[in-house]
Specification:
The protein is an alpha/beta fold. The protein has 3 domains: 248 residues, Alpha-Beta Barrel (TIM Barrel), CATH 3.20.20.70; 73 residues, no CATH class; 142 residues, Alpha-isopropylmalate synthase LeuA, regulatory domain (Double Stranded RNA Binding Domain, 2-Layer Sandwich). It is built from 17 helices and 17 strands. The strands form 5 sheets. The protein has a 6-stranded parallel beta sheet with strand order 1-2-3-4-7-8. It has a 4-stranded antiparallel beta sheet with strand order 14-15-16-17. Strands 11-12-13 form a 3-stranded antiparallel beta sheet, covered by helices on one side. Helix 5 crosses helix 6 and helix 8 packs across helix 9. The radius of gyration is 29 Å and the shape is elongated. About 8% of the residues have low confidence.
Amino acid sequence: GWPGANPKDVQFFWKLKEEPLKQAEVVAFCSTRRPNMSAAEDRMLQAILAAGTRWVTIFGKSWDLHVTEGLKTSLEENLAMIRDTIEYLRSQGRRVIYDAEHWFDGYKANRDYALKTLRAAKDAGAEWLVLCDTNGGTLPDQVSQIVRDVIKELNVKRLNVEGSNLPYGNAKGEQPANLQPANLQPANLQPANLQPPNLQPMLGIHTHNDSDTAVANALAAVSEGACMVQGTINGYGERCGNANLCSVIPNLQLKLGYSCIEDNQLARLTQASRLISEIVNLAPNDHAAFVGRSAFAHKGGIHVSAVAKNPLTYEHIQPEQIGNQRRIVISDQSGLSNVLAKARSFGHDLDKKDPACREILERLKDLENEGYQFEAAEASFDLLMRDALGYREHPFELKGCQIHCDMLQGVRKPYSNSVATIKVSVNNQDILEVAEGNGPVSALDAALRKALVNFYPEIAAFHLTDYKVRILDGAAGTSAKTRVLVESSNGEQRWTTVGVSSNILEASYEAVVEGIEYGLLLESSAKTPLSNSPALKER
């Protein structure tokens, strides 16, 4: 965070003083002092000191174009700004990470001046020099060459690479500067044992993904000797994002042999990725490398058969190493191997000679020909298998449903009001209920749960978490078939069901009903345990 940049960041650092972190250390961030003033006079640097962090990150200009056109100052003044800022912060007891902004563009435009900016930071006592590809336009081979040149010219510490039995070699690094968690010190207390300037700082890398090479660039820099990677979980960041730590960490640790985190921490990487997605309120990327739901998904029959015999045939690592799991995808391309693997993953004991296997496969292909797709609706596929195996339980029977929608004129624009009337039978008892919603699907879901909650109280915890619609044959216009995917949750688990019809309400009706049925199946003493079912997603 940047203390003093806005009220939110100021409040953030004050909160951290009251409740220091135990597993991480916050680093305050700021630019070098402004031109033609002393560091002590710069109010942004005073805000950094008030934040009370042990480490600070200062960014400065590396590209002469930014100095003369952006800052409107001289090249010599920029060097003084870097030097003065770091020396001042060190005199106040802070340890400094220097981020060389636009480093790679600056190096390409004026190598000598770019190197002078790093020397200024090094001589002033920065313990880390971080090369930033701020525009995200540099390619991996360029990163390698430039990092190699920096290490040669500035005599910075680098990781020592040694061979090992790992397929891509091993690396053992020297101990970096102490970045272990420590309580934030109050702003009015300064460390008494300020260390002398580190004559041999460590090198870091900060990449952006504008050329889709942020991870590759970070790996290239580390391979040349960089010891710090600045990135984000899931690659979140401005424009196209930053280096994705969910890819950087397993690549460094599992492919290149660097020790980044403990193995038990690595095994929680997928969990961390999905937690951060929830916090920022963005849907997880199912196709993300390593941590995506499809990262270890297998669809073709030959692939599935081979993976069942030896996962190494189609998997570059064991999914459990990063907390992910293998997933067998069911589609009209599936063979018996897929059906058997998927059935076993759900806990259904099937043999390839069992006639039910062929029946499931035929049903699957017929339904997908009609527009159904079970790759993302594994709860519906589990119900299909239970039906074929003869032990699908129907906790309720649908008797009928009617949905009425009104378009009403509001103060500024029209709005809709939907009412659903539903009739169901439970244990030979008919129930008729009516419910309103802000749309037909919302009203349908509310009416169905209202009708069933007295018989199944657990339904009170069910709710829809996602609703997706896809037109399957757009050329047919308004008579086109529609596929609806509904994601439901009971607060702890999520599952997805599918419905298909030329009537969007019928498709929604089917998906919602199966979603509630599957939720009840989770809560019941069903024949097959579902706690590890692949139809379930971690919340």
